[in-house]
Specification:
The protein has 32 helices and 18 strands. By secondary structure, the protein is of the alpha/beta class. The chain has an eight-stranded mixed β-sheet, with helices on both faces. A six-stranded parallel β-sheet has the order 9-16-13-10-12-11, with helices on both faces. Strands 14-15 form a two-stranded antiparallel ribbon.
């Protein structure tokens, strides 16, 4: 198949005003558009087009790089030409956003919307991109009444995800009038899903799985040390290379180790330098990222700031990086073209235990190798365990068995390790992915959602309970698991009755407490608790704004890397104090046992929460999570870099940024306007200014979603946001920005001052030179006195 050009040929302009009444005419139109772009479809793509335009569901089980995106486009075009409404779903926001802009270019921005947990753009558009959970919630509430004519489910193997798989199953169970395109490169046996979908909808299901991978893969099991394996791959012209690790620490350490080897010549390094000219590497970890990148080595993991990860992706797409050291998350949908994949391990911690990779995970990551249009072959290399490699070399060196027995052999790691060998590797390569196993949970949030919808439709909430029980019966779960979920549902319903959230009337009928109607329209499960807790605070207190931040932090998930760093800092301070007091070593160890991260207002928060849970039994008793990260920063108006340095959390910059962004969002979304004092407004402005200086991409995208909730999308660069609409907030923001500049200048932190003055052309050295005369004058005055 020829690669498509970048000409943004608009598909929507090919459709008559009243749409296509004839599916054949719509198919001819779509194929004409495809050929005009210089694309010759593969056989499996043509088969998919025919099945979709004939009205069938399609399960598209084809390798990475085989053109699934074009098949998805065919589904969107078919539904759009019929004047229907089509949804694209994906597991992560980055994929949703990428697809949103792609579809804007093809169908016109006015016809495409996006919905995520943060907000929506053009939500009523005929083509909607959203996370799987958004569609699942819509399908659960509205069922067959939902305005969903077709759905493209990307990365459908998430159907088997332990925590999120239900979001991929619910639309299949509740949207009987919808046409589905289910896509993944690693589906395994889907016969049960296909049979159930056909029975449920009365629509045939086509299984397209006979595609050959366009770029074949060559697999190798390496008994060389990892540095030699890397060297062989790069020197053999098999770069760009993606080195897969299963922890951020290991990925960073590998990038550092590669600084001692030159894989880029001076011309290549000059090209990289030109590409990053003007880019800000001004965070604490940024200096390391810059060194790696200028050396031709990319680093990519969730602990990094988003702008660094995006830069690595951009440079990789331009072919400037020889090596990328990343975690396994890079293997999920991110567009980073690579020729070779090197697995440093075949075991990982899955959140519960260390285990061998599933065949699905292995094949998903390995499938990133081989670049369409560039490579004729991709390469996948798997390292043997390091101690096995060491011992094999010892055996080759010592041919005398008696001498070998006396040599001390390398031992496997004592934790975080499960053994693999070449047979393990072969099974991962040769065996098909595991059969997708369904997951289904019934929680109080789901029960309340369907009961609310039933009451809104007919005045009685009980049909919602019956509907959820019926949904459990129809689910893909085995019988014994269904029985357990039914029991959980009944237990949840009894809890709602006891708490008088549900009122039972003769008939029988049921109604929900009217105060509940706003409970689940907020953004966190503890949002209503937060409002109740905030009302107990004294707004005249000098710590009111900080106490509000503390309460907001208590309803958010823990940023564990940051909290662990706080704990280590607190223990270090305690040790220093005990040493100064002359406390013996054993007693010092005992004194450290109960120390953890700061938890201000812990006792007050738990007392209020315990009382609240008595009447809100659906809340998890572990949901309250006291901590003080944003509060610590705000108390001293500290800088992001200073705080990272204090905690020694350089590799977790990205997690701190995401957490502070969540705090900012929660403050705006969940603290009522009437509870915002001037001090809290200033604190909000300070936090927003800090986020803007570090990396504004996360919060700016969210602000655009909020600002454009009902506005058409734009295909080009988004216009700047008008931050002056609210005069009070605007004035606070100006004060916060100026405070940031003055504080940086007072510390002689020219890099931070440069970040505060973003976009004005001044470099750190220019700022230092401009300020130096004033510092000299101040020094002279101090000397005179």
């Amino acid at each position: 198949m020829a690669s498509p050009d970048d000409t943004p040929l608009r598909l929507d302009e090919r459709i008559p005003d009243l749409g296509f009444a004839d599916a054949d005419a719509a198919l001819d139109c779509f194929l004409g558009w495809v050929l005009e772009r210089g694309i010759t479809p593969y056989d499996h793509q043509e088969e998919t087009f025919l099945e979709l335009f004939a009205g069938s569901h399609v399960v598209l089980d084809t390798p990475t790089g085989s053109g699934k995106s074009l098949c998805a486009l065919a589904q969107h075009f078919k539904t759009f030409s019929e004047l229907g409404r089509t949804f694209y779903t994906a597991p992560i926001k980055a994929l949703v956003s990428e697809k949103f802009f792609e579809l804007c270019r093809v169908f016109g921005a006015e016809h495409v919307g996006m919905m995520t947990g943060d907000g929506a753009i053009n939500r009523d558009a005929p083509i909607v991109c959203c996370t799987a959970e958004i569609l699942s919630n819509l399908a659960l509430r509205e069922g067959a009444d939902a305005r969903v004519d077709s759905v493209v489910m990307d990365e459908f193997h998430y159907y088997a995800d332990r925590d999120r798989g239900m979001a991929w199953q619910i639309p299949l169970l509740t949207l009987p009038n919808t046409q589905f395109l289910l896509m993944s490169a690693t589906l395994g046996d889907t016969s049960a899903i296909r049979d159930d979908l056909e029975r449920r909808t009365g629509r045939p299901v086509a299984h397209v799985d006979r595609a050959q991978r366009p770029i074949p893969l060559e697999y190798r099991y390496s008994m060389d040390p990892v540095h030699e394996a890397i060297d062989h791959i790069v020197r053999s012209s098999q770069a760009p290379l993606y080195i897969v690790h299963f922890s951020q620490r290991e990925a960073s350490e590998q990038a550092q180790a590669l600084m001692s080897v030159n894989y880029c010549d001076s011309t290549e390094k000059d090209a990289i330098a030109a590409a990053v000219r003007g880019f800000r590497f001004d965070s604490p970890f940024g200096k390391h990222v810059e060194r790696y990148i200028r050396h031709g080595v990319g680093l990519h993991h969730a602990g990094m700031l988003p702008r660094y990860r995006l830069l690595v992706e951009k440079l990789a797409q331009q072919g400037l990086l020889k090596i990328i050291c990343g975690t396994d998350t890079l293997g999920v949908g991110i567009n980073v073209p690579i020729r070779s994949v090197l697995f440093t391990k075949l075991c990982k911690y899955d959140g519960r235990k260390v285990d061998i990779l599933t065949r699905r995970d292995f094949q998903q990551i390995a499938g990133r190798a081989g670049r369409a249009g560039f490579d004729t072959r991709g390469y996948v290399v798997v390292q043997a365990p390091a101690h096995v490699i060491d011992n094999a070399r010892l055996a080759a060196k010592h041919t005398d068995p008696k001498k070998l027995r006396k040599v001390r052999k390398s031992q496997p790691p004592t934790h975080g390790f499960k053994h693999w060998d070449e047979d393990t590797f072969r099974q991962l390569v040769d065996q098909p992915p595991e059969t997708l196993q369904p997951t289904f949970r019934a929680d109080l949030g789901q029960l309340l959602a369907v009961m609310q919808h039933a009451q809104e439709q007919g005045g009685d909430a009980l049909p919602g309970l019956a509907r959820l029980h019926a949904l459990v019966d129809e689910s893909h779960l085995p019988d014994e698991r269904r029985a357990w979920v039914h029991e959980q549902l009944d237990a949840h319903y009894d809890a709602l009755l006891r708490a008088q959230v549900v009122h039972l009337h003769p008939g029988p009928t049921a109604t929900l407490d009217p105060d509940l109607q706003h409970d689940f329209s907020l953004h966190h499960s503890l949002s209503l608790f937060l409002v109740a807790a905030l009302s107990s605070l004294d707004r005249a207190s000098p710590t009111y704004a900080l106490d509000v931040v503390t309460m907001v932090e208590a309803i958010l998930d823990h940023p564990m890397a940051i909290l662990n760093a706080q704990t280590a800092r607190e223990k270090g301070r305690k040790v220093a104090a005990l040493k100064a007091e002359g406390i013996p070593y054993e007693d010092r160890l005992e004194a450290l046992e109960g120390i953890r991260w700061p938890e201000p207002m812990k006792d007050e928060l738990w007392a209020m929460f315990d009382a609240y849970v008595e009447h809100h039994p659906w809340l998890d008793r572990d949901a309250l999570k006291p901590k003080a990260v944003a509060r610590e920063l705000a108390e001293g108006y500290r800088g992001f870099a200073d705080y990272i340095g204090e905690l020694g959390a350089h590799r977790s910059e990205g997690q701190l940024l995401r957490y502070l962004t969540d705090v900012y969002k929660a403050l705006l979304q969940n603290v009522p306007e009437a509870m915002r004092t001037a001090e809290l407004t200033d604190l909000l402005a300070w936090l927003r200014a800090l986020l803007g200086r570090v990396d504004s991409s996360l919060v700016t995208e969210w602000e655009r979603l909020l600002a454009g909730s009902d506005a058409p999308a734009t295909a080009g660069p988004p216009p700047p946001l008008d931050i002056s609409a609210d005069p009070k907030a605007f004035a606070a923001r100006i004060r916060a920005e100026l405070h940031g500049i003055v504080a940086a200048l007072a510390r002689s932190d020219w890099e931070e001052a440069h970040a505060c003055m973003r976009g004005n052309g001044f470099l750190p050295a220019d700022i230092e030179a401009a300020v130096q005369p004033f510092l000299d004058e101040a020094g002279d005055i101090a000397f005179d006195h």
